[in-house]
Amino acid sequence: MSLCFAPCPRCQAEEQPAGGGFVPSDMLLSPQQSYSGSILQPACSPAAPSQLGYVDGFDEEPPLLEELGINFEHIWQKTLTVLNPMKPADGSIMNETDLTGPMVFCLALGATLLMAGKVHFGYVYGMSAIGCLAMHALLNLMSSQGVSHGCVASVLGYCLLPMVLLSSAAVLFSLQGTPGTVLALFIIGWCSLSASKIFTSALAMEGQQLLIAYPCALLYGLFALLTVF
Amino acid sequence: MGRLRGQHAGGAGAAAGPGRAGPGRAGVDTVCAPAQGGGSAVIDMENMDDTSGSSFEDMGEMHQRMKEEEEEEAEGEAGAGEEEDGEFLGMKGLRGQLGRQVADQMWQVGKRQASRAFSLYANIDILRPYFDVEPVQVRARLLESMIPVKMINFPQKIAGELYGPLMLVFTLVAILLHGMKTSDTIIREGTLMGTAIGTCFGYWLGVSSFMYFLAYLCNAQITMVQMLSLLGYGLFGHCITLFVTYNIHFHSLFYIFWLVVGGLSTLRMVAVLVSRTVGHTQRLILCGTLAALHMLFLLYLHFAYHKVVEGILDTLEGPNVPPFQRVARDIPVVSNAVLNTTAKAIALTL
């Protein structure tokens, strides 16, 4: 996946229709046209208005989503990266501190649990917060270069997506039998493999993927316990 | 200490301030000339209000309040803010200015000291070398923890590593949680997660510390990290046993696993400790204690959560035991008379 490290989204701003909506089809990758704005950086504020100081006039304001740094196309690309644990990941993924996608996935997990009759939003929130803190501490201890809380939260949040699939399955049939256990184990393996793949590629810890996958598996196992029981 | 040198409060005065701020107010006898024009170096503590914030804890609050009040003033509520400030903090006018400076400096110094202490003691980098492992090493150590050593005549090597033990403790927590969930255990005071984490970490840290203390008394050659590592890897047997017996419910199977698997890991730990201790009595004390605690812990983990499982299985598969029913008892006439007599006797005495 080609990445544009130029922080200038001017071309992106020009392509925007006046209403501020994103047009995903315009953002498709082509070898000649590089991504405007790095996929891994949340869209930074447009260069032009910031040079003028604060914008005056409604028409010159940047679109709301751009100002908030929410880029649906980038989120989608990152999701696809996470969903395929076999594809080698790019090392620069650790630069991301985008929490919108993870937030959406956590809410989706809570919503699917709600559909199964369990109101566990608080548990999801608490477990993800404590899990992020614990993984951050462990990764800082195990790697030579440090990580920030935002990166850990972002990666763990994106890799929570398969768990949303498990909890949607829980809506349709009970997971407390053998097939449910097998499915849960498979999903846990999928989540932890994705997360450990991203962490090891970004922190240059090649031989230690299993060592990072295991704590991730424990964390996602907790989520699976929440979903199954 | 009755005087505070406001202008030089940045150095020694402020450093001594937090320590003496408390009693400083109590024994003030000196009366100094009141400050004029904001340039005086002396504050008259006697004339200050009780709320003049002489304790260190109040300094922080004052600092925060001052910041907030400054912001309020900036928004045009100057008159009311200053009045409130003056009355509430008990400092009036120019003395208030000086008091603020002193408080501010004391707060800064205190904050600096606290952050220095924090960065010194809460630095997790000191644990970094204990997490530097390869997967092959961890696997080898896991397998070794089940094999008792035969050479107890010279000290056996213990890997001072914390990754394996920490992961084993977390695995035990997960197995306990899974067991509690499948057996529908209800914890009334607390949460399932809290109980599981408290039990496992409490055992690991508590028994390690206790054994380290005993080892110190018995003159054994072992450090705290080595003890943590040894006991942590000893939990591997517990994990295996509980994982199997929480899913397959046979008492005899559990006892076999308890003796064989639990016994092997205990033997390994005991052998390593024996190799590092001199003297029969000391060896006996150390190894007896460790063996007892380790085996009893496995027994406890099994029975604390197993009873509930057994109970459910009995009701599901065992002989039909009807639920407890309340049946009205026929009280015969004789006892009725006795009751009435007794009631009358009690009424008379009252």
Describe this structure in words.
- The complex is a heterodimer of chains A (229) and B (350).
- By secondary structure, chain A is an all-alpha fold.
- Helices cover 59% and strands 0% of the residues of chain A.
- Chain A has ten helices and no strands.
- Chain A has helices spanning 10-15, 47-51, 64-68, 72-83, 100-115, 121-142, 149-158, 161-172, 178-203, 209-228.
- The radius of gyration of chain A is 19 Å and the shape is globular.
- The longest helix of chain B has 38 residues, at 280-317.
- The two termini of chain B are 69 Å apart.
- The model of chain B is unreliable at 1-38 (pLDDT under 50).
- The interface between A and B is medium-sized, with 16 and 18 residues.
Task: Name some characteristics of this structure.
heterodimer, A: 229 residues, mainly alpha, 10 helices, 59% helix, globular, disordered N terminus, B: 350 residues, 11 helices, 68% helix, flat, golgi apparatus (chain B), membrane (chain B), transmembrane (chain B), cell membrane (chain B), glycoprotein (chain B)
The overall average pLDDT of chain B, rounded, is 77
Structural class of chain B: mainly alpha
| Strand coverage percent of chain B | under 5%
Shape designation of chain B: flat
Distance N terminus to C terminus of chain B?
A: 69 Å
Family (chain B): Belongs to the YIP1 family.
GO biological process, one term (chain B): cell differentiation
Protein name (chain B): Protein YIPF3
Function (chain B): Involved in the maintenance of the Golgi structure. May play a role in hematopoiesis.
At a glance:
Chain A: It holds the Pfam family Yip1. Chain A is mostly helical.
What is the topological layout?
The complex is a heterodimer of chains A (229) and B (350).
Chain A: H1 10-15, H2 47-51, H3 64-68, H4 72-83, H5 100-115, H6 121-142, H7 149-158, H8 161-172, H9 178-203, H10 209-228
Helix pairs in contact in A: 5-7, 5-8, 6-7, 6-10, 8-9, 8-10, 9-10
Chain B: H1 9-26, H2 56-74, H3 78-89, H4 93-121, H5 135-144, H6 163-182, H7 192-217, H8 224-247, H9 251-275, H10 280-317, H11 333-349
